[in-house]
Write a structure and sequence with these properties.
Number of helices: 11
Distance between the termini: 45 Å
Structural class: alpha+beta
């Protein structure tokens, strides 16, 4: 009999990095809040992933949505790559995980198990699912919202801790309005998380990244269908490592304090400000999705009432909560305090926290890449050169080598330190789409 070891549920910790000193009359307080979960599922490798007895560990349900529109046959390697990738993901499922496969065209079809049900992963159901995949064929249009709504119906019927989707598309969402997709994402937000992937180069980056953003998942491009199986395996390993769902960052502020923004800044930039839900007097919750063994950084910016020299105040208190069945919330036992202290010491009050400076630059990096690529597409080459030059400068200064390499495929770098660049005359579509899709990926600050 196998010797299963069940990891503990993650323990959360919160660390705050800031310069708390303000000059007389100063009112803006910035802090980087690092949230770390340890002792739960280990991510990133099947060799180190958590091992559970059948039915043990955190209960999970996964819906895999595979694009089956007509364009998936051009070239035929796309459909074959999608079948192989989905089979690899199914093989990575932990025993006892509920799962379903959805075929997506202008409508959504249950490929396996069917009948509005979820299968329970074991050797038999995995083999049955892979047999069903062999019958997948391409034909029809693309309406991604219908795929997500079917995934939501299937996942919501399962009494599980973790609900997750994986979505693969190769084309533009042409058989559904942007408003319909937005309404679907709004309806599904908070009900399950979803990773989205675009295969090839004929899909719309903003659709794929928008899905991942709304549903607190990851987005990426797989330009070559041959890379799909490895990518799907990694995604499923990560999903199987999640231990706690629906974690929210709860921010309490005193009377007179205003929250300017709350952003995730590592491992990717994601503005959470508009997703706040009220949580009692002067407190609000910001969704962060599901967690395994991992660490993320958040940038909190608040405006406090100016105070006299020598005074200090608690500007914000940050904690972590998960929902309870009765509609309340349970505190996960970790908190961080953001302070404000007024001083006439100019050296202290004008210093910028290295963490705040780093992530302010990373957020600007993501912004100028998006703007630069939009200007390039619009034919404003001078504007695009200026923005992408600034991106090269920021990537170089922050040590974001991955983004610097992607930028070098779109511009010729004359001087990275000053951001002097020339737009390349010819850019491979896959290179431009990769830069746009991965523009929000950041590097951690060296603490």
């Amino acid at each position: 009999m196998a010797n299963f070891a069940k990891p503990n549920v993650p323990r959360f910790s919160v660390d705050v990095y800031q310069n708390e000193y303000l000059p007389e009359g100063g009112s803006e307080v910035n802090a980087i809040v690092t949230v770390t979960a340890t002792g739960g599922g280990t991510l990133g490798s099947a060799l180190t992933a958590p091992v559970y007895p059948p039915g043990g560990g955190p209960s999970a349900a996964v819906a895999i949505m595979v694009d089956c529109s007509g364009s998936m046959d051009y070239p035929p390697t796309k459909m074959q790559g999608a079948r192989n990738a989905t089979a690899a993901a199914i093989d990575t499922l932990r025993d006892g995980t509920r799962f379903a496969v959805i075929g997506g065209t202008h409508v959504a079809k249950e490929v396996y198990p069917g009948g509005g049900r979820l299968a329970v992963a074991d050797a038999t159901t995995r083999e049955q699912a892979k047999q069903a995949l062999r019958r997948l064929s391409a034909g029809g249009g693309t309406a991604i919202g219908t795929w997500l709504r079917l995934a939501d119906r299937l996942l919501s019927a399962a009494d599980v801790t973790i609900r997750h989707g994986i979505l693969l598309t190769d084309g533009r969402n042409e058989h559904e309005s942007a408003q319909d997709l937005r309404a679907t994402l709004d309806a599904c937000a908070g009900r399950f998380t979803c990773d989205a992937r675009g295969v090839g180069t004929d899909w719309e980056v903003k659709d794929v990244t928008g899905i991942a953003s709304a549903l607190l998942g990851t987005a990426d491009i797989v330009a070559d269908p041959a890379g799909l199986a490895a990518d799907f395996t990694r995604m499923m390993e990560t999903a199987m490592g999640k231990e706690v769902a629906d974690v929210s960052l709860r921010v309490w502020t005193p009377v007179g304090t205003t929250i300017r923004f709350v952003k995730q800044v590592a491992p990717t930039v994601e503005d959470l400000t508009g997703r706040r839900t009220e949580a009692g007097p002067r407190a609000g919750d910001y969704p962060t999705g599901s967690w395994g063994d991992e660490s993320r950084d958040y940038h909190l910016c608040v405006t406090v009432p100016p105070a006299g020299l020598g005074q200090e105040m608690l500007a914000a208190r940050v904690s972590l909560v998960v929902p309870e069945p009765d509609g309340g919330a349970r505190n996960l036992g970790a908190q961080g305090l953001v302070r404000a202290v007024w001083t006439d010491d100019m050296t202290a009050s004008t210093a910028i926290s290295p963490q705040v400076a780093h992530y302010t630059g990373q957020a600007e990096l993501a912004q100028v890449i998006q703007k630069g690529l939009d200007l390039r597409k619009a034919g404003d080459f001078d504007g695009a050169t200026a923005k992408l030059g600034r991106a090269v400068q920021l990537a170089n200064a922050s040590g974001n080598a991955d983004t610097a390499k992607l930028l070098a495929k779109v511009v010729d770098v004359v001087d990275a330190v000053t951001g002097t660049v020339r737009l390349k005359t010819r850019v491979a579509e896959a290179d431009e789409m990769t830069l746009e899709t991965r523009s929000t990926k950041t590097v951690r600050v060296k603490k």
